[in-house]
Amino acid sequence: MDSVEKGAATSVSNPRGRPSRGRPPKLQRNSRGGQGRGVEKPPHLAALILARGGSKGIPLKNIKHLAGVPLIGWVLRAALDSGAFQSVWVSTDHDEIENVAKQFGAQVHRRSSEVSKDSSTSLDAIIEFLNYHNEVDIVGNIQATSPCLHPTDLQKVAEMIREEGYDSVFSVVRRHQFRWSEIQKGVREVTEPLNLNPAKRPRRQDWDGELYENGSFYFAKRHLIEMGYLQGGKMAYYEMRAEHSVDIDVDIDWPIAEQRVLRYGYFGKEKLKEIKLLVCNIDGCLTNGHIYVSGDQKEIISYDVKDAIGINLLKKSGIEVRLISERSCSKQTLSSLKLDCKMEVSVSDKLAVVDEWRKEMGLCWKEVAYLGNEVSDEECLKRVGLSSAPADACSTAQKAVGYICKCNGGRGAIREFAEHIFLLMEKVNNSCQK
């Protein structure tokens, strides 16, 4: 079970998260917020992910692949699978981000240029969204840069808003960090402790730590937002687990975040199962798709040694590896690669062949992985438990997979996918031991 806490807050914060000096605004309840008389319809809670195209830190950061998935895809998957929202939206000014959002099943609000500037605030974009969507009563503003968000977090916050009457709820994380005042020449020449007594430094286990906003989400009712606040009224925080508090702002965060996501991220409603069979398309996955013909008309193909090592590692771990192709490849040429894999060529229906292999081994589809790069691989990619495509695969294949490799076909994609499988299998084994 996730370890979380919630607590009420009394100060009012401005849209940037800094406490304001004024008193909380006296809020007027409306019937759409659940405080009116008579029979009322349930308040419409909309998830809203703000994804501007012009990121200064990392170009098109919101759709850059993190652990094989577009960054925004991680939070969209969590929001959609939570079932907590009547609608899930992405507010963007960029065509590519719009396409990715729709692929994951979100609706898209095309934001105006006025709220897409570097100087535009999140509140500006949210208010514009509300101006176009009168049906929305509550906004759950989810940050695209928080890829370890889980549906259970969103479900609990939705309950706090709907059932417990909070006007706003935001995410925090507990940190055990000692803070010191800043030294400023001519103002303060020495530092002073802010949250500890140096003479009695507490041990971590003897100190509850402090709560910090982690930026994962901000939920607020419409009437509060229209007054210029994302935090205010009857407030509460929602404490997320530290391992789920990942925020990506600069490139240096990326490799660290990938490892965290692979270990603690949310991978979908279906529980992961141990992979027993990997099927790999030959042309464009095992090879780079290039075919060379010798002077005596013999077919020559090339492959990456890294991929051969990846296949061997998979086999040593007990995963069967089989090769498939719709082309009439030379089995003699493929045999010379000495990969010791069963293969089928001249295949017109790849799904039927893979299904036959699956039944032969007594496996369910969740125990099968598939690496494909062409339109002919689409049905297999959609059916298996774990799917992947090389970086240079066709768009149809990439849209169908759960993991897109950084490597091209014939240039390390199999080895990369093998490493991904090993990481997920470690996750499966760890969950079984709990």
TrEMBL record:
Biological processes, Gene Ontology terms: CMP-N-acetylneuraminate biosynthetic process; N-acetylneuraminate metabolic process
Pathway(s) annotated for this protein in UniProt: Amino-sugar metabolism; N-acetylneuraminate metabolism
InterPro entries: CMP-NeuNAc_synthase, Cytidylyl_trans, HAD-like_sf, HAD_sf, Nucleotide-diphossugar_trans
This protein's UniProt keywords: Nucleotidyltransferase, Transferase
Entry's Gene Ontology molecular function annotations: N-acylneuraminate cytidylyltransferase activity
EC number: 2.7.7.43
Pfam families referenced in this protein's UniProt entry, alphabetically: CTP_transf_3
Physiological role: Catalyzes the activation of N-acetylneuraminic acid (NeuNAc) to cytidine 5'-monophosphate N-acetylneuraminic acid (CMP-NeuNAc), a substrate required for the addition of sialic acid. Has some activity toward NeuNAc, N-glycolylneuraminic acid (Neu5Gc) or 2-keto-3-deoxy-D-glycero-D-galacto-nononic acid (KDN).
Subunit structure: Homotetramer; the active enzyme is formed by a dimer of dimers.
Sequence similarity: Belongs to the CMP-NeuNAc synthase family.
Protein name: N-acylneuraminate cytidylyltransferase
Gene that produces this protein: CMAS
